[in-house]
Amino acid sequence: MLTVADIMTDEVFTIRSSAKVTQAIALMQAKNVRSLIVEKAVKGGAYGIVTERDIVYKVMAESADPLHVMVCEVMKSPCITVEATSSLLDLAKLLRAASIQRAPVVNSGELVGTVSITDIIRQTDVTDIELPLGWAEKVETALRHKRLCWGDDCQLEEEREVAVEVLAELQPELNNRPKVSSAQSRK
User: What pTM does this model have?
Assistant: First the structure.
């Protein structure tokens, strides 16, 4: 089973909380990253995180001057961290519960990497995912029984409604199906 350590990015870019937002923007651009981990202000303190979204929403959208705004004014702190030994399922649940897209990875309290929802998707082996029996037929039947709509907007709305209905029908099956390992399913 994969753990966070298996999929994380171990090259971490950090910044001090006292840095100016312009420095954070320059570092993000230079390293081509979407977030920076904010170093602990004191030993035993908490890590923070500053993201592109934080900068756009809290600085740019407020017409604040990034030359005069410090990272500590826009960062999230303390930020949620994840242990390197956590499972991907636990990671996905943590990210969902906190409504975040990325988190610093720690091992015994020390920063060892970062992980994001993108890392989960990139490292997921979709050949190991088994859909419920009859899934394709249920989708096809649901699509066939929906009335046609000729307008572009209506067609998209119609498809969305069909998808929601199909997922609602399948949810009990997905939750109650027995777990089958990859080795068992290939026999």
Answer: 0.64
